[in-house]
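Exercise 7 asks you to align residues with tokens for two separate proteins.
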Amino acid sequence: MQRKGSLIILGTLACLMATTARADEDSLAWSGFMAPVLPGATVHHQQRSEFDSYRLVTGPTHTRFKESGTRVVEIHDVRELEGRLSKVLYRGGEGSSAFQIYRFYSEWMEHAGFEDIFRCDAETCGLDFELWWYRQNPFANDFGGRNSGPVSRATLHHYIAGHKETERGSIFVSIIITHGGTLGWAQPGFRIDMLEKTPFTFEAPDAGTDFRSDLNQEGFAILRDIAFEADTADLRPESDTVIEELADHLKDTSGNVFYVVGHTDASGDFDSNMRLSTERAEAVRDRLIEAGVAPELLKAHGVGPLSPVAPNHTVDGRAVNRRVELVRIASPTEAVASEPADEARADEAPAGTSAAEATQAAGAQAAEAAARIGQAARDASERVSSATEQAEPEPRLIPVPRVVGKWRRGAVTELEAAGFRVNVTGRNVGRVSRQSPAGGTGAEPGSTVNITIGN
């Protein structure tokens, strides 16, 4: 009987892998890799993007207690990915079981060539795994918990994470199977996230403008066609052409000093974004030096997400914000001309000082003066200042989870795990009707969030 059941699953898979995935792609004009759909299952909600970030969970939850006695549940094992992303929440068909779904997709992954990264069940995934898994990659639209409830407020059955290598590159899959969610489904629910790892290539919004005219007219330029491997500062080969053209231009700029500035979007960890933006700026600077640009003419800095040029709440906006810019500080001649008359100039250097030494000193003075000037995004002459490194740190704010509409126990657990104290008023049992501060606003870690249960 078991062998017969396996043959039925394999036969179904053979048909689905040949037709279902491609038909679904065609109907949605979707170019990404797709998993087959279990017969009878229906799509409840989906979210797809040609390029996005994703946090692939590769381990169970861990529980610890603070000195105050507050329990904290965390997921430590997460792999940061970028690429073409599909997140689809399904409702199982009439008469389907969570175990049937688990067997179906286990067989599919094996025959499609996926290798396991991590898998667990209700006993081995850890406390509240389904809640914390969902929080790594929530849906953008979740009014009233309609799209999170079937996963984050349900009973976990199984979780599987895997990957495979194809001619198109690395493909990752994350499948979570649950039952008994807050929407009251009689059938199990399951969500399948697929990410096709692809590099990000920057495309400037005004791609028709040449960097030479931008540098000459505005004093800064977004570097076109600079591409990095995902989540690294490794330049891709297609960046070579623009770097060579840029190096040739800089070698003819008569000693101008420039900042190479790395930018990221606002998704992910702030410190990691600052580090990555700096590493990418340094990578471009190093390649320009290798191409013959004098090292003293280039200063690398990273500003992370602090200078966006587009909204960070859209995929296209985040793509535009991830960029590398070149910012002209000043030329030695300009620096000397702007100094007071009683200070030494390159053409009035003391006896015994060569013209080259005087020019070098003036260039250093220009760079030092420009580094004290801090300006926000897209000013014509000074863009980034080293004064930001000495600035007083602002209080670190973290987003407050939105818990309105969620059950009391889950809301308290979620807020405490995010690092907040919780003050509860109203009924002992029920859903959250109000919260302050509101979900999505920034607040200091350890501050109090007030929630009201019931009307």
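Second protein for Exercise 7:
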Amino acid sequence: MNTTHLQQCRNWLAWTLPVTAFFVLTFSLAAQETDETPATPAAAKTGPAAVPPPKIPVPQPPATFRHPGILNNLEELKKIRAKIEAGEEPWKSAFEQMKASNYSKLDRKPNPVEISKSGIMGKGGDSGGAKSESIDAKTAYTMALMWVLTDDVRYAKKAVEILNAWTILKGHAGGNWYLQASWTGSVFASAAEIIRATYPDWSKEEIAAFSAMLNRAFLPELHNRLAYGNRKLSTVHALVAIGVFNNDRAAFYEGVSHWISYVPCWIYLKEDGPVPYMPDYWKNGPSNEELAKLSADLFPDPSKAWFSQEVKIIGEDRTMLEKGDINLLWYNPPMYVEGMCSETFRDLGHCDLGFASLIYTAEIAWHQGIDLYSIHAKRIMAFMEFQSGLRIDEKIPTEFYRIQFNNVNPTWETAYNHYHNRMGYALPKTGEFIKRALRPNLTKPFSVPSVPLYMFPEPGVRADKIMWPCTLQMAWETLTHGELGGAKTPDGVTPASAK
């Protein structure tokens, strides 16, 4: 190759590599921020028909909600602050990471919209308000944490500014409409819950306006939504979180009811039979009449309640759920193995997304005196060890080679804290996974310094990237739950036996 050709190659690489990197990053973000219906396999397997899961009694919602009582209570927040002030790890590094993030910048301004429009596979999300809604929700939650962990009132004021700004929201549209509502609704509620309980200058009128916005722009879109996989678990998480903030027993009960019914359909155990359970949560209530009784104090006229409102359905998973092809729903796996979930053969990143919402729902219920963790303890811990093993073990079965080992999402600390630190279960693979994949990133430089989106994994972790610890509905889990510990029962409630 002569000098001229060599220079031409260099010029071509200088132009194409940045462009290629841009499109790879753009596609990665689109895949992280969206969900889509699985493609139909070329030839779906035939075999035993899937049956619905056994019916498990649903605990009644609390007569009076505890505040703050979503992901952390006040005692836990005080403990975290004491650990930070004492310079103990992992709290010190996790706090410094949050403090240095863009979500803690006090000069940030909210960008509210009346209709938040999200695209599918990254199309239309940036221009339709979904991006600003997602950023503002996480910023409000970060500001709330910064406030209670520092006593710097500027953070409380900024959180209030953001929450008040978004009271103009009327609803969601676009391809990811209800999923966007799920992700941001749960985070907005978590931020508001901390601020209302700790900052008296957020006025009653402002709180009422924010609560009304949740009733108008979120709950009708989440109500009885026919969703599958991580999408369903995200709606459940948002229902329960908003239920706590709004003191809405109906929203809380619907979320808990669907969680109890759906978790066995998302994680497989051998005792389920040769194939997983088929979801049927939407067939078994709660009915609108039941919800009306639970929320009679908030909505004396049920026709005015969120569960009575008409919603324009842009798209949901009704067809795939009602068709009832279990192999299609589970992405046509070569086999069913204990601990795998319905999205294992989609990719492990989406398994993380679903698991985060599953665990957050249980954690919220725990803070309200209800032990969901023990109802499906065996199933959840089987998933934790199986998923973690896929990420860190040297060998995996050849049948699992087609699994996509893509993003590690910033969850796992809440689940591990409950089952290992609170309850004392040995979860060696999960503990090792957290040690290798999550904890090193508390002090690691970002791959894209100006836009902190992800970091690269340590050797021995099967993943393309480790996502930034504040993404979608997940935020700062190592800070809020890493090594947190706690009592074995939610305020003295005796756990049910693991099933």
